[in-house]
Amino acid sequence: MLCINLDRTPLEQAAAVLSAFGAPTEQRPEPSFEQDWSERVQHIIGGYVRETGAPR
């Protein structure tokens, strides 16, 4: 067995600096639409297919 004692403080400080560097400075804006238009089209077509029993 090999035991290595190491002070992890510098590594944790470096990780904190890198995390802060990569963190966004502004919050994301709210989406303009509830659903993307392609998702809405897929939802409508999927509902039609489920109602009519038409194959995909």
Give a brief rundown of this model:
The protein has 56 residues and is an all-alpha fold. It has 2 helices and no strands.
Order of helices and strands: HH
Count up the helices: 2
Question: Structural class of the helix and strand makeup?
Answer: mainly alpha
The largest β sheet comes out as: none
Quaternary state reads: single chain
Give the beta-strand count: 0
Q: Whole-Å distance between the termini?
A: 61 Å
Rg calculated over all Cα atoms:
26 Å
What share of residues are in beta strands? under 5%
Described by the principal axes of the CA atoms, the overall outline is elongated
- Give the overall average pLDDT: 82
User: Which runs of at least 5 residues are low in confidence (pLDDT < 50)?
Assistant: none
Helix percent reads 40-55%
Features:
56 residues, mainly alpha, 2 helices, 54% helix
Question: Overview of this structure, please?
Answer:
- The chain is an all-alpha fold and 56 residues long.
- Helix content is 54%, strand content 0%.
